Amino acid sequence: HIKHLEHEHLLYIVNAIKIMSLSVYDDQPNAHKKFMEKLDACIRNHDKEIEKMCNFHHQGFVDAITELLKVRTDAEKLKVQVTDTNRRFQDAGKEVIVHTEDIIRCRIQQRNITTVVEKLQLCLPVLEMYSKLKEQMSTKRYYSALKTMEQLENVYFPWVSQYRFCQLMIENLPKLREDIKEISMSDLKDFLESIRKHSDKIGETAMKQAQHQKTFSVFLQKQNKMKFGKNIYINHDRIPEERNETVLKHSLEEEDENEEEVLTVQDLVDFSPVYRCLHIYSVLGDEETFENYYRKQRKKQARLVLQPQSNMHETVDGYRRYFTQIVGFFVVEDHILHVTQGLVTRAYTDELWNMALSKIIAVLRAHSSYCTDPDLVLELKNLIVIFADTLQGYGFPVNRLFDLLFEVRDQYNETLLKKWAGVFRDIFEEDNYSPIPIVNEEEYKIVISKFPFQDPDLEKQSFPKKFPMSQSVPHIYIQVKEFIYASLKFSESLHRSSTEIDDMLRKSTNLLLTRTLSSCLLNLIRKPHIGLTELVQIIINTTHLEQACKYLEDFITNITNISQETVHTTRLYGLSTFKDARHAAEGEIYTKLNQKIDEFVQLADYDWTMSEPDGRASGYLMDLINFLRSIFQVFTHLPGKVAQTACMSACQHLSTSLMQMLLDSELKQISMGAVQQFNLDVIQCELFASSEPVPGFQGDTLQLAFIDLRQLLDLFMVWDWSTYLADYGQPASKYLRVNPNTALTLLEKMKDTSKKNNIFAQFRKNDRDKQKLIETVVKQLRSLVNGMSQHT
């Protein structure tokens, strides 16, 4: 081996030299030859060195060969022994090899088992978690299932990601998540449907709780007031505090009995589907989708809840169901707001409430306008108050609802006015329009307890006696107070001051007096069957009702504790109301009296061509005068001016009617006998006027009603035409009230009668002169009339 290395080294040197020689020979002539010479010299030197070395080691080499020869025999023996030993060892090792292979095989199996165990120990937690996931899915514990999925993905799957079953599991997880989303969304839909169905029950429960709290507060306030004052009496009428207190106590007792049955919103609704769905979508990172879906669906439900039934205004149950559904809706939203984070926000609920409030107000305005029953309107008001108080307790602003109540109050007042209009009509229909008779002290006290009547003269009279007013007066007074009570019911629970309540009561009472009662009185007065006696009694009734207005003001004052001397206190307009009614009744008396006179005058049956009068007044006129005397006896209970005006109006109308009878265009002829008969009737009228049928006239004032007729008849009876024509236009003329046109009309009728019937037969000798005289007077009167026309 050493030799071999030396040879290699020599070859390497020779090759190196060849290379060097190539590089050297490139640029020198004879360089190769020189190099070869030097190489030969070098070789010789090496040979000498080799020879020396061989000589130096020759003895050692000889010694080594000698030793080898000596060992040769032993080596052969050893070879034989080794061969034999190897054979025997091989024979002996065959069994070992077999056992060794078995051991190797077992070791491999053991190693594989260990590997499998390790891998299984690594996979078992994954499989256990996946099994747990399946169990959670089957038991609908979806939120826990999602948490398990997160653990599988983040912790367990990375350990076994190289296995196929892990890949299958990984591929299955998104499907499971979608299944969970669908199932939870289905649960949410079921929940939304459930709360839609139960919203009225939820709202009813919440409103009952709010009403109970409010009733208890009002009861405490009443108890505090009772400590500082007693019940107030007004004209034997008691302010109904005891009645209110009894109602409050009864209400509290009922609510205490049912208190155990009152449920909360959590008792009525299972909110777990919302919580689960919210948590699930939060874990899935899709919370925004869930929030948007929930809000969208709830807005749809809000629109459905806010849509009223078409016949809601017909019953209070319709309004109650409408309010309870809305309350239930917002109670649920308030609960969701406080128990979840971010599902709904205060801004969202406020926006939803403002939208709902506008719709509610519009609906109530529309439907309340159809309500004609004041009890239904009052129930509506109470429902609105409870509705507002309930939602206010949950933090929703309700000022606009209380503003709406003022509009509902106007509607309530209108329905009350319509109802009381019917009440007043019934009272007027049932009245006999005659003074109230009383036979003993008990009946007297009953009337006094109903109506504040004070008359010392009547008190001094012995029984039996009569109140001047009829039965309708105390009934009207009682009903006005009942109206005040009804108005007061609406003012309760409106969170208004006593001053505002006092103003409301007075304004509504004024409407009752000035519109309803006044209208009923006017309609009553104008009814055809109401006669003069009834009209007289109506005037007397209105006088006493007018006097009772101050007691009504005291009644309101004691209810509200607001003094009438307060600057802003509204006064009752009863005085003007009853004055207007009285004036209308007076006018109707004048009209009906004139109509009655016309009826009598229509019975007149004059023979306008009679030659001689009957010597006595006409029968129709005597009947008329007797009727007027009896009527004016009834007028003694009227105020003096009314009776005097009625009497003067009747006389003037009678005078006008008689004058029109003479001047009727259909009447073509009048004899002197007829004029004389007519004169007898006018004399009876003058006698009636002078008999003072109504006291209070001064001198012959009433007789002046017939002055036109008297002067006209005197002119024809005396036939004093020269005086009339000479003094016409003079202030002191005897016939100052005779109109030339009137005289001409009557004279022409008499002239025609003279021509046809020879009315002046007793003056036959002077017939021609008389006829000329009439014609002359007619011409002068025509000239006078024409002159007056031209002057005009």
List the helices and strands and how they pair.
Elements lengths: L1 H24 L5 H108 L3 H15 L7 H65 L4 E2 L2 E2 L2 H17 L7 H4 L3 H12 L3 H20 L9 H24 L6 H23 L5 H20 L5 H32 L5 E3 L2 H10 L5 H5 L4 E3 L4 H20 L6 H29 L5 H16 L1 H12 L13 H29 L16 H16 L5 H23 L9 H19 L16 H12 L2 H7 L12 H18 L9 H25 L1
Antiparallel strand pairs: 1-2, 3-4
Pfam families: EXOC6_Sec15_N, Sec15_C
Family: Belongs to the SEC15 family.
Function: Component of the exocyst complex involved in the docking of exocytic vesicles with fusion sites on the plasma membrane.
Describe, in short, the structure shown.
This protein is mostly helical and 792 residues long.
> How many strands, which pairing sense, and closed or not: the largest β-sheet?
2 strands, antiparallel
Overall pLDDT, averaged? 82
The arrangement of helices and strands along the chain is HHHHEEHHHHHHHHEHHEHHHHHHHHHHHH
Q: Which structural class fits the helix and strand makeup?
A: mainly alpha
Which shape, going by the Cα principal axes? rod-shaped
Protein name: Exocyst complex component
GO biological process, one term: vesicle tethering involved in exocytosis
Function: Component of the exocyst complex involved in the docking of exocytic vesicles with fusion sites on the plasma membrane.
Family: Belongs to the SEC15 family.
Characteristic key phrases:
792 residues; mainly alpha; Methane Monooxygenase Hydroxylase, Chain G, domain 1; two-stranded antiparallel sheet
